[in-house]
Write a structure and sequence with these properties.
It holds the Pfam family O-FucT. By secondary structure, the chain is of the alpha/beta class. It contains 21 helices and 20 strands. The radius of gyration is 28 Å and the shape is globular. The N and C termini lie far apart (75 Å).
């Protein structure tokens, strides 16, 4: 019989008496297993294991990471569980990349016979000027609505002035980003547009400045703006974003679509560079996903969300949050429960893999400087090693003409995301909404929005389930968030995201429609649904932290706008690229 292990105290130290060789070997083996297990426990989680045919990879550890400071990310490992991400993609194949029902719909923005031509309704001596606000896509919504506002007022629209004073400090003018000639000629029969107001007595007239309420209806424009226009003749509407009602009569909604989807074309340098990026993505893979990540410090600060970085994260993001003086006190738990927090890069990657996109899929990421830097992106890159951005696809020399201008850089991302086979948004802001609307209009191309409210609890508890269970739940929760036709009920949502008045269903496989000329869009030809042959879905659009200029002394402010603070009743609407 083996002797019983006893401990003796020799000179104040505990020692273990000698044991039989077999027992010693057993003890050594056990110790080695403990060391290996401990090493695996502390190792950072990997996205996939090797093998073919969907084989399982290494173990996954509990995911939540701590953002201790922008350049440092560490894992908060509180337990281990088998959570091995399948290497292979879904068996759904083409259905994953596009909807079967997409071919049953088409964009239709032609004006009806009741919509009179501009020359018949435009009144002389009425000039409407617009000063937009925010980043590229927030300004885009302002430009679209400016055309409709001019039509409501039967006024001549002056080419809108872009925002040069906001956070972006971008000095780009309208002509630096958009094709002015195309803009004017495409809308010739809808609204008269000129480059500048004619001089009076040899000098340009000074406009009467005023600001109108948000979501202003046509009646609102007639009651508030028209009297000033009749008296002053030249009126400038300042901070023009979301100043037009979401719900309008059909012809005005269709005019919105003609502006957004046809008249607003990027300049040739931007378009050519964007098309080159798309071509280089196509050369790497026949099809690709574009992800609008939105995990920059400003986005996280604005959202009021918390990602486990302790006092350092609270202090850093809290300082940024002070830019918006009227923001309510943050309640991170509530925001997360309500689905208002962006997913982490890893969570986005896990969602896509759970939906069935394989490790070999090529991913284009449109993003600014990610909070946490490369370490924050590492889990996403492990899940999708074929990771690209405009900075990796183009040389510094090729990007040099665009680098100093945030709006032009955002336009390049816009083109690639618009041309992607699948577009994924991590924040339902201006860029996401506009792109979602464009992709519906141009053939219901796949657009995925995370169901953050449902996914929140799933990500929180994913260490308690297998990968198959997790993937099944993700697929269930994402039903209704995959960009399918009729996913959003008519009349619901923001019009730029869901332009239902401009989407028609095919009847028995036939489309009774005129054959208008083709218009170029990001390297492809699309129908120009116009009323004549000449016509053809928060960059953070900070928007409301921009102070009024010193030349705004005669600006009239609406009663429902708070002085000295933000005039946005729904701040979430301001978030964009």
């Amino acid at each position: 019989m083996g002797s019983r292990r006893r401990r003796h105290n020799h000179h104040g130290r505990w020692v273990v008496p000698a044991v039989a060789p077999a027992a010693a070997a057993f003890a050594a083996a056990g110790l080695l297993l403990l060391v290996v297990a401990f090493h695996c426990f502390l190792s950072p989680p990997l996205g996939d294991g090797g093998g073919e045919g969907g084989s399982r990879g290494v173990r996954r550890l509990n995911p939540p990471f701590l953002l201790n400071k922008p350049a440092e990310v560490r894992r908060n490992v509180i337990g281990a569980v088998d959570f091995a991400v399948a290497s292979g993609g879904s068996k759904l194949g083409q259905e994953l990349w596009e909807s079967k029902a997409a071919g049953n719909f088409f964009g239709c923005s032609n004006a009806t016979g009741q919509f009179a031509e501009a020359r018949a309704v435009t009144k002389s001596n009425r000039y409407l000027m617009i000063a937009t606000s925010g980043g590229l896509n927030q300004q885009r919504t302002g430009i679209i609505d400016a055309v409709v506002a001019a039509r409501i007022l039967n006024a001549t629209l002056v080419i809108p002035k872009l925002d040069e004073e906001s956070f972006w400090k971008d000095e780009s003018g309208f002509a630096d980003i958009f094709d002015v000639d195309s803009f004017i000629s495409s809308l010739l029969n809808d609204v008269k547009i000129i480059r500048q107001v004619p001089d009076r007595n040899g000098k340009p007239p000074s406009p009467y400045k005023m600001r109108i309420p948000r979501k202003c209806t046509p009646k609102c424009y007639e009651n508030r703006v028209l009297p000033a226009l009749l008296k002053k003749h030249v009126v400038q509407l300042t901070k023009f974003d979301y100043r037009l009602s979401n719900r309008l009569e059909t012809d005005l909604q269709k005019l919105r679509c003609r502006v957004n989807f046809h008249a607003l074309q990027f300049t040739d340098p931007i378009l050519k560079m964007g098309e080159m990026l798309v071509q280089r993505m196509r050369e790497k893979s026949g099809r690709f996903i574009a992800l609008h990540l939105r995990f920059e410090p400003d986005m996280l600060a604005f959202s009021g969300c918390y990602y486990g970085g302790g006092d350092i994260e609270r202090r850093e993001l809290g300082e940024i949050r002070k830019r918006w003086k009227s923001l309510h006190a943050s309640n991170p738990d509530r925001e997360r429960r309500h689905g208002k927090c962006p997913l982490t890069p890893e969570e986005v990657g896990l969602m896509l893999r759970a939906l069935g996109f394989g490790k070999d899929v090529h991913l284009y990421v449109a993003s600014g400087d990610v909070y946490g830097g490369e370490e924050t992106l590492a889990p996403l890159k492990a899940l999708f090693p074929n990771f690209h951005s405009k900075e990796t696809l183009a040389s510094k020399e090729e990007l040099a003409p665009f680098l100093p201008y945030s709006s032009r850089m955002a336009a390049l991302d816009f083109i690639v995301c618009d041309s992607s086979d699948v577009f994924v948004t991590n924040n339902n802001g201006n860029m996401a909404r506009i792109l979602a609307g464009r992709r519906r209009y141009f053939g219901h191309r796949r657009t995925i929005r995370p169901n953050a409210k449902k996914l929140y609890s799933l990500f929180l508890n994913r260490t308690s389930m297998s990968w198959d269970t997790f993937a099944s739940k993700v697929q269930t929760f994402q039903k209704g968030f995959m960009g399918e036709p009729n996913e959003i009920k008519p009349g619901r949502g923001e019009f730029h995201e869901n332009p239902m008045d401009c989407i028609c269903a095919k009847s028995k496989g036939k489309i009774e429609h005129s054959r208008p000329r083709l218009i170029k869009r990001a390297g492809e030809a699309v129908e120009n649904h116009s009323s004549d042959e000449d016509l053809d879905w928060k960059d953070l659009d900070y928007g409301e932290h921009t102070p009024l200029g010193k030349d705004s002394s005669n600006e009239i402010e609406s009663d429902d706008i708070r002085v000295g603070g933000s005039d946005i009743p729904e701040l979430e609407d301001m978030m964009s690229d």
